[in-house]
Amino acid sequence: MATFAELGLSESILKVLAELGYDEPTPIQEQAIPVMLSASDVIAQAQTGTGKTAAFALPIVERLRDERVPQALILAPTRELAMQVAEAIYKYGKGRRISVAPVYGGQPIYRQLRALEQGVQIVVGTPGRIMDHMRRGTLALDQISTVVLDEADEMLDMGFAEDIEFILQQTPQERQTALFSATMPEAVLGLAHRYTKTPKRISIVSEQHAIPLTRQAYYEVMPREKLDALCRILDVETPTSAMIFTRTRAEADHLGESLQGRGYLSEVLHGDLSQAQRDRVMKRFREGSAELLVATDVAARGLDIPDVTHVFNYDVPNDPEAYVHRIGRTGRAGRTGMAITLITPRERRMLQIIERAGRTRIQRQKLPSLADVAARRREAFRDALRGVLEQGDLDPYLLMVEEMSEEHDAVDLAAAAFKLLLNEVDQDDTISSVEGDAVGAEPGMVRLFLDVGRLDQIRPADIVGAIANEVGLPGKSIGSIDIYDRFSFVEVPNEQSQKVLHVLNGASMRGKKVKVSVAKPKR
Ligand code: AMP
Question: Which residue range(s) make up the domain with 401?
Answer without folding.
Answer: 374-422
